[in-house]
Amino acid sequence: MTAIHPQPRPHSRLRWRTPITMVILLGILAGGGWWGWNSLMNSSAEPTCTEQKLTNNRLVPKQVVLNVYNGGARAGSAGRVAEVLKQRGFNIDRVANEPKGDKTEVVALRGATEDAPEMLLVAGQLNQKAQLIADGRTDHTVDLVIGAGFGAVKLKGIPSVAVAPGSTVCLPVVPSPQPVPSGQNPN
After folding, report:
1. What three-state secondary structure class fits 55?
2. 147 pLDDT above the threshold of 60
3. 67 φ, ψ (degrees, to nearest 5)
4. This prediction's pTM
5. Which candidate, 64, 71, 116, 114, places its Cα nearest to that of 92?
């Protein structure tokens, strides 16, 4: 039996389009990875804190940047606590639900070290004993995480914390509000 139409011969040519496309895409991926790593390592970001000697060797609330997170308390609790601490002079950066989703029984403080002056100053504002968590952060901000068992802040918290004479403290950089150009909506 013979075929009516001759069968096509198998192509002996290699198809180069797919391997060339893959090499180009891998080159783009490698270049993007190198650029990202280089940008991360050679970051020109501003410093997160500055070493300073404190006047009278005391740390006061206006020198502390505080994040207040709701870690299981009733809705709006973090906002109310943040407002009270803001009136006492603390710089409030963020008020939100706990970013990691962790729940806290009563209250927790996270900061650079457990005995950092900024941690002690915030702990001195609370009625309950806070769980102190040292996470080694370099910006020296403090996270206050309030839980379901949190009551309230003290009516009158400690006004300052003593630091060793002649020592320096890394104080967070407090961003100054930028003026809104006339005619533009600030929101």
Report:
1. helix
2. yes
3. -110, 130
4. 0.67
5. 64
